[in-house]
Design goal:
192 residues, mainly alpha, 7 helices, flat
Amino acid sequence: MSAVVEQVTVERPPSLVRQALKLRRTQVGLTIALLIAAIAILGPFVAPFGSTEFVDSPNLKSVPGTVFGTDYFGQDVFSRFLFGGRSILLLALAATTIGIVLGTTLGLIAAYNRGRLDEVIMRTLDVILSFPQVLLSLLVISMFGPSNLLIIFTVGLSTTPRIARIIRGAAVPVVERDFIAAAEALGESGSG
């Protein structure tokens, strides 16, 4: 008697990324994001003039050799646009990083230390969240003057409450699970 071994192939479902890439809106969004990143990275290399180079008289709409004319200093608007993309993306990346780090930290602390500390953290974040993000940034900048570090910190701080709420909401069910209680019963401390 001979045994016949059947080979079964299991087809794996496509990953979430592959499913998303098949959607038209994902393709359009990714194309736009890559185009913006390419302009920000390659812009300074293809700019017709330097970012602070004087081109012609101020506020002219059609100057030979310029695409968008000149600004109130006589500098090429298109060149300044190409040079500005990199700094704007770096500012956004830094502010987002600050918001994610602060929000994750505060959200996890609030989720694990339920009670008074949770209330203090979340109500403080609610106060920050009650101010419109752009208005808060403009208020702080008008009080202390324009500075890249101030812009990064203000935008990062104003995104912190949103991230903290999401992280806290995801962490509370995990903190309430039995393995956390078992670890604490064995003497593990919550503070590390």
